[in-house]
Amino acid sequence: MQARGKGILPLFAQNPDRAQDFSVRFDGMLLDYSKTHLDIAARDALIALARQRDVEGRRAAMFEGAEINETEGRAVLHTALRNLDGGPVIVGGGDVMPGVRETLMRMGSFAGAVRSGAFKGAGGSITDVVNIGIGGSHLGPEMAVRALSPYHDGPRCHFVSNVDGADITDVLDGLDPKRTLILVASKTFTTIETMTNAATAHAWMASEVADPGAQFAALSSARAKTAEFGIDDSRVFGFEDWVGGRYSIWGPIGLSLMIAIGSERFDAFLRGAETMDSHFRAAPLAQNMPVMLALVGMWHHQACGFATRAVLPYDQRLSQLPSYLQQLEMESNGKGVAMDGRTLSGVSGPVVWGQPGTNGQHAFYQLIHQGTAVIPCEFLVAACGHEESLKHHHQLLLANCLAQSEALMRGRALDTARALMKTAGFSGDECERQARHRVFAGGRPSTTLIYDLLSPRRLGQIIALYEHRVFVEGVILGINSFDQWGVELGKDLARDMVKLLAGDVDKDKDGSTRQLLDFARGHSCT
Ligand code: F6P
């Protein structure tokens, strides 16, 4: 709580080099965390905490394939999927890299065939690809496909995730089943939403295509189940249990992205992530971008008690990044029990939310600037846009991003507001009253990640940056960032609830749930 209410601007007066001292640069990216309350002593203490919690040891264990996902008895090796230039990665006595390379090559030749038209649907070359998946089998590909739209030169890609029939209805509406490829993306191939949507897509295709299974591919670890569904093994792209769902964009779950942008650009995406991995493994903690992003996060939610953080990409093509990070961060670090089974003594990871600027400015920034809760803001912006003929748009976008972080830090004092109101013609009590509404407390922290252009390589780096940030925060919190037991109870109860909606007698339900069930059952549509 010590940082609340203190100014940030005076820190720049005390240290003219503050901007450089409180920034990390890596490969053309700049993470500026100087607009926070962190001072040298606090930063040193955070780095000491990271050392004391053995971030370096856990990091080595992760990259070396140790079973750091202790509650599921698994290694955590999504980094192996992008270890294109690295050496062997040993799991259970065997090198996993030959398998990783083979799957990548199979993906490349399938994606190439879909893109070139060599792979055909019943009506000719594929014009549309629909990825059916949810959570980690949806959020990453959807986010990345949208982010890299300037690089698309393959068939159109669409995404279905929600079990709400509205989702698949709207996505399939207007598509030609004879020229559509369905990717069923599910690590387990049991997720009820995905399997329900996959069955609906199959029926949709079967209405016009004699062999609908031939236009399906599966991105899954569960070969027996994909075979049972009727998908030929040649179109099943598997991955191992050491790739967690929310970390799976780098392998088969990224197939829609590969089809959209081609395997060479997908390779650049992987290589970008690989450079971030190398940086994360080698850079000293104080110059380590993921580590410092994590420590700033820890400072805000653990030391300062700020319960949420806003992710604010000034990049419309990163519109899905906040949703993607919600799963990455909150499914990973939203845990109440430490690795050793003890209840966490402090708070777990923060609530993550946000949407792109400048849209958010016209929606929720009022609260960020003048509300009573302090919300650390994490801005992301590219120095350049892809739209050569619309440079003035990009200048405005950049200007707004930089202005917001300055405004949050600088604020507007009562005296300044009074002067403004006097100039506007107010006087006396009314001037005072009007002025008070125009005061900005200032001293509101933010970080800014600025980079040249959102290219495939840059996107790979940015996602890997956040993955490692989550890892570091999880290690410091002492939790397992790689399981997700908290999603199970709701799934179990939903299975029962389906039977109750169908007419089973409800035993043991509370009054509220019974009332809601009765209401729903009272409508002939259920
Ligand atoms: O919601 C829980 C979860 O297991 C996520 O972790 C995962 O990303 C998602 O469901 C989808 O799982 P699957 O890929 O097995 O369908």
Which secondary structure elements does this structure contain, and how are they paired or packed?
Elements: H1 9-14, H2 18-21, E1 23-26, E2 29-32, H3 40-52, H4 55-63, E3 90-91, E4 94-95, H5 97-116, E5 120-121, E6 124-125, E7 128-132, H6 139-147, E8 156-160, H7 165-172, E9 180-185, H8 192-206, E10 216-219, H9 223-229, E11 236-237, H10 255-261, H11 263-282, H12 289-303, E12 308-314, H13 321-333, E13 351-353, H14 365-370, E14 377-382, H15 391-410, H16 414-423, H17 428-437, E15 446-451, H18 456-477, H19 488-501, H20 511-521
Parallel strand pairs: 7-8, 7-9, 9-10, 10-11, 12-13, 12-14, 14-15
Antiparallel strand pairs: 1-2, 2-15, 3-4, 5-6
Helix pairs in contact: 3-12, 5-10, 6-10, 6-13, 10-11, 11-18, 12-18, 13-18, 16-17
Bound molecules: 6-O-phosphono-beta-D-fructofuranose.
Task: Give a quick rundown of the structure.
By secondary structure, the chain is an alpha/beta fold. It is 45% helix and 11% strand. The chain has 20 helices and 15 strands.
What does this structure look like?
- Strand 12, helix 13 and strand 13 form a beta-alpha-beta unit.
- By secondary structure, the protein is an alpha/beta fold.
- The protein starts with 8 loop residues before the first helix and ends in a 5-residue tail after the last helix.
- Helix 11 runs parallel beside helix 18 (456-477).
- It has 20 helices and 15 strands.
- The longest helix is centred in the C-terminal third of the chain and has 22 residues, at 456-477.
- It folds into 3 domains: 37-66 and 283-404 and 451-483, Glucose-6-phosphate isomerase like protein, domain 1 (Rossmann fold); 83-267, Rossmann fold (3-Layer(aba) Sandwich), CATH 3.40.50.10490; 488-521.
- A 6-stranded mixed β-sheet has the order 1-2-15-14-12-13, with helices on both faces.
- 6-O-phosphono-beta-D-fructofuranose binds at residues 134-137, 186-188, 191, 194, 245-246, 331, 484, 487.
